[in-house]
Amino acid sequence: MPDVKLEIQMLYDRVMVRISPEDGERRSSGGIVIPATAQMAKRLAWGDVFGVGTGVRHVKVGDRVLFNPEDQLEVEVQGTTYLVMRERDLHAVATELTEHGTGLYL
């Protein structure tokens, strides 16, 4: 039987996110390099949405979202690690135009 490729479809309120690569090593405002392994307070991460379930209302594929990566489940697909979470676990979405924004931009 030949290999059949199956498309992944997220269910209900689930979102599949890939953590942005720049969330590893970072620099302080003074230029000091802070390694990704440095112990800090819990840190939220930005990621890109790769799939959404039918019950997801506020994000879409391609959005950039803010979330806590420590509380999520990981899945590996074709060598790339993704996180699967509920939409309610997202803290923010980066968008071009909004009525209720913070006035801060990425």
TrEMBL record:
InterPro entries: Chaperonin_GroES, Chaperonin_GroES_sf, GroES-like_sf
CDD domains per UniProt: cpn10 (cd00320)
Transmembrane segments: none
Keyword Chaperone among UniProt keywords: yes
Keywords in alphabetical order: Chaperone
Family: Belongs to the GroES chaperonin family.
Subunit structure: Heptamer of 7 subunits arranged in a ring.
Role summary: Together with the chaperonin GroEL, plays an essential role in assisting protein folding. The GroEL-GroES system forms a nano-cage that allows encapsulation of the non-native substrate proteins and provides a physical environment optimized to promote and accelerate protein folding. GroES binds to the apical surface of the GroEL ring, thereby capping the opening of the GroEL channel.
The protein's name: 10 kDa chaperonin
Organism: Lentzea flava
